[in-house]
Amino acid sequence: MTDLVRSWIETANDPESPFPLNNLPFGVFSAGDAPRCATAIGDKVLDLAALQKAGLLPDHGFDEPALNTFMGEGKQAWNEVREKLTDLLRDGAETDAVRDALHDMGNVTLHLPFTVIEYTDFYAGRQHAFNVGSLFRDPANALPPNWLHIPIGYNGRASTVVVSGTEFHRPMGQLKGPQDDQPRFGPSQRLDIELEMGAVVGMPTEMGQRISVDQADDMIFGYVLLNDWSARDIQAWEYQPLGPFQAKAFATTISPWVVTKAALEPFRCDTPPREKELLPHIKDTGPMLYDIDLSVTMTAPGAEPTEICRTNYNALYYSAAQQLAHHASSGCAMRTGDLLGSGTISGPEKGTFGSLLEMTWGGKNPITLEGGATRTFIEDGDTLALHGHAQGDGYRVGFGPCVGTVLPERADRS
Amino acid sequence: MTDLVRSWIETANDPESPFPLNNLPFGVFSAGDAPRCATAIGDKVLDLAALQKAGLLPDHGFDEPALNTFMGEGKQAWNEVREKLTDLLRDGAETDAVRDALHDMGNVTLHLPFTVIEYTDFYAGRQHAFNVGSLFRDPANALPPNWLHIPIGYNGRASTVVVSGTEFHRPMGQLKGPQDDQPRFGPSQRLDIELEMGAVVGMPTEMGQRISVDQADDMIFGYVLLNDWSARDIQAWEYQPLGPFQAKAFATTISPWVVTKAALEPFRCDTPPREKELLPHIKDTGPMLYDIDLSVTMTAPGAEPTEICRTNYNALYYSAAQQLAHHASSGCAMRTGDLLGSGTISGPEKGTFGSLLEMTWGGKNPITLEGGATRTFIEDGDTLALHGHAQGDGYRVGFGPCVGTVLPERADRS
């Protein structure tokens, strides 16, 4: 495990900063002006468009309001930019040009870091799949028969992937519980979170082109935290046989900083032992998961945050590389800016479940929050936050916030 | 029903031309040069970029290689351009400027007419849903309990929506039949078509914004033919519980000309009687389906085409407007260039089924093609073509081709 790389920006050397020089994630910011690409260092945002304009970085579209052009330039460009930024920010390398391109993190607006071209959600949490199967169908047949063979997934909705901090309204939908004669249309009463990681596809494939797990891993630009907000009652009524649709389509929140594969390299780890042998095209070829500590806090209006979940990305059964190899396996073309949700990350014990559905076992066992409020599902005004970092030796690689507050349903139609 | 509107371009006045002046669909073409927007008239393609440059049309991005800018301009722009083109092409209105912008249809390349932002596939064919439910699950519970209440759908894959004429390879995938101990990875042996119509979303909505059926109908720019190619064996193993994914992701073919709502106005008709009352937000508000004759031909290599299906768009249970209203109902933002597949259109009788799965009843009853070949599912080198037109009084409104030929699976991985 590598040590902290010291920066001339002091706050980056704090062992609890999410943004040491070892990290160098990519995002998009504005400071009362046009959005453009940035990196984060300590408590600062570094304007990459300014560095590009000053000739300190090659032209990779850093003046654009999204990372897609840069990502599409490929691995060599990603590595060169990382090296160059490391050189510019290393302890002792302070220059006016770089200092002039810094902004205090608290003074900027962070935007969706890339244009999400398409969004696919996977289902790689074994415990989550087991728990949901028990609750939605039948404990005796909880894990679907294909689960241990295929990293199954479904296409999600890209148009409502939003950056941390974006508020949204409680979704309306068709609801029909087991006791109801007729369905009705109304606000979801079982609004939930899903703690996930998002893998960002940097390099595309052509239609008809299949890829190995190694090629898939190479294509990934980096990772974000991802909350796949879910309306469990809308989901229960709509999902057979075509899968989840409106239940997921109202909002998905991601963190604003895409943490690169390079920054996560020291934290690679293996997937768990295979319960059944995988087919060759998705077999594990090396450590493709990451040791990333994850947690979720829930905050009732006016109260302090309560930690409701603590787990790790390495609790998953399948890696993003396996999911991506599967995604292209029929010849499905992948594109720069595609986003892949890992699936809800739940560990095996209480306290490690990545959704309220599991934590409260379908609403049967309410949880108690700081300030005394109890919850089964999300109530109006609640704030849910995902937190994550990879713990190094004297430093950590963080992702930034992944926060959302739920507003009441909209009364009007438009 | 209106009569033929006569054009100074004679071939447009032929009662069997798909492109009379009553139609004026929109597409994208090139003639050895850069792709740009066009309309079709008789056996000609009319270059709209040239007309825009000559000041005969307002600047609506017709010089771009996609219709998205024009569609995003809104209904008033769509209507004004239709009126202007009608005036320019009306019998007696011949000018050099317009004549100079014409190309023979046979001399041009037609491209994907718009950038498909996201693609959603619905399931509004009652007979199809019943047939598939019987084959995939259980005849006693063939129609899912939610089917008569919700115009259910699932997100599809936009990256592999291609224009008519695009060849593609037989998809590979994980396969596990009822008799197999273990799954295997190999070429699909049950490759199929799905006869559908595609509705093209012209006007967007915001996240959180719900829409009425009337507002949804207003948002639709026009319609295309759509073949939702499907790998039934990949589908059977992967689809529970998250829905179809790789089974559909390898290719979807659409016709090159988007036929506008205005051209289809004389052909509006009602949905069938409701078996169960619909909730208010998706209730029928008027005639939102269209009377469009549809057929499918299948051509074995070296043989003549065989018609294998003949039906009508009005066999569907739900309209595109209802599907779109449902799609936005949770607050899901819709965007210009979103594509909505209707779902497979199957009538109640033999000869009207829109998929080989149904025509051959899961492969049990082979069909015989011209030249003597028999088929259960698609074989390498087969060509499948969807055909459609709305029949007026002495004219028809056509869609152009929707054709695909299946190549053998790719042996190499990349």
From TrEMBL, chains A, B:
Ca(2+) binds at residues 121, 194, 196, 228. Substrate binds at residues 123, 137, 235, 239, 344. SUPFAM superfamilies: FAH (SSF56529), Fumarylacetoacetate hydrolase, FAH, N-terminal domain (SSF63433). Transmembrane segments: none annotated. Mg(2+) binds at residues 228, 248, 252. Its cofactor is Ca(2+); Mg(2+). Pathway: Amino-acid degradation; L-phenylalanine degradation; acetoacetate and fumarate from L-phenylalanine: step 6/6. Keywords: Calcium, Hydrolase, Magnesium, Metal-binding, Phenylalanine catabolism, Tyrosine catabolism. The active site is at residue 128. The keyword Magnesium applies. One of its GO terms (biological process) is homogentisate catabolic process. GO terms for molecular function: fumarylacetoacetase activity; metal ion binding. Residues 119-403 form the Fumarylacetoacetase-like C-terminal domain. Residues 22-113 form the Fumarylacetoacetase N-terminal domain. PANTHER family: FUMARYLACETOACETASE. NCBIfam families: fum_ac_acetase (TIGR01266). This is fumarylacetoacetase. The lineage of its organism: Bacteria, Pseudomonadati, Pseudomonadota, Alphaproteobacteria, Rhodobacterales.
